[in-house]
């Protein structure tokens, strides 16, 4: 029998629940894994998770909507979050913002058409004395300058080399 995308997703979520637990305390760990693998959490995934954990889909939806890092919308393979809080703002956040937008050809809140990069603003990351601070997926960069933006994006782009595997790690200097 042919397995559809939905079958595959449901089967993956069932395996995650078997591994991570089938009660509501496993909700965020499961959501994080789904987001990491599929870069999005759609309504079907939320329904499957809700059924498995015995909770209402509205509850799953509200958790996904509440946490920016779980955002149900599709994001690029690299999600770049720039701190927009006051210390970083005063330390040159706008120059970094402009450089990112110019280099990627998108505005904050958007994803490149090839699905590789998403730009988002974030609130304080606790690195206020080393701003501007930038998060690339789960890796923090501090004292970011427009020149450093170029290096960071180049390191990300190397991951997408001709035969680069989806899971290949990015190496920042
Ligand atoms: S204000 Fe940007 S990290 Fe705190």
TrEMBL record:
Binding site for [2Fe-2S] cluster: 83, 88, 124, 128
InterPro entries documented for this protein: NuoE-like, NuoE_dom, NuoE_N, Thioredoxin-like_sf
GO molecular function: 2 iron, 2 sulfur cluster binding; metal ion binding; NADH dehydrogenase activity
Cofactor names: [2Fe-2S] cluster
KW Iron-sulfur (keyword) present: yes
PROSITE patterns documented for this protein: COMPLEX1_24K
SUPFAM superfamilies: Thioredoxin-like
Keyword Secreted annotated: no
Keywords, sorted A to Z: 2Fe-2S, Iron, Iron-sulfur, Metal-binding
Record's cofactor remark: Binds 1 [2Fe-2S] cluster.
Family statement: Belongs to the complex I 24 kDa subunit family.
Protein name, entry field: NADH-quinone oxidoreductase subunit E 2
Gene: nuoE2_2
């Amino acid at each position: 029998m042919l397995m559809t995308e939905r079958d595959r997703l449901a089967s993956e979520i069932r395996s995650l629940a078997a591994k991570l637990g089938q009660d509501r305390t496993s909700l965020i760990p499961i959501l994080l894994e789904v987001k990491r693998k599929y870069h999005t959490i759609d309504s079907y995934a939320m329904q499957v998770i809700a059924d498995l954990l015995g909770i209402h889909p509205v509850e799953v939806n509200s958790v996904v909507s509440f946490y920016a890092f779980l955002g149900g919308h599709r994001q690029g393979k690299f999600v770049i979050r720039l701190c927009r809080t006051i210390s970083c703002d005063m330390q040159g956040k706008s120059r970094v913002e402009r450089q990112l937008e110019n280099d990627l050809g998108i505005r904050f809140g958007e994803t490149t058409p090839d699905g590789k990069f998403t730009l988002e603003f974030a609130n304080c990351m606790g690195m206020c004395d080393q701003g501007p601070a930038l998060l690339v997926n789960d890796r923090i960069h501090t004292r970011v300058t427009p020149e450093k933006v170029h290096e960071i994006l180049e390191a990300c782009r190397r991951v997408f080399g001709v035969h680069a595997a989806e899971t290949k790690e990015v190496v920042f200097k």
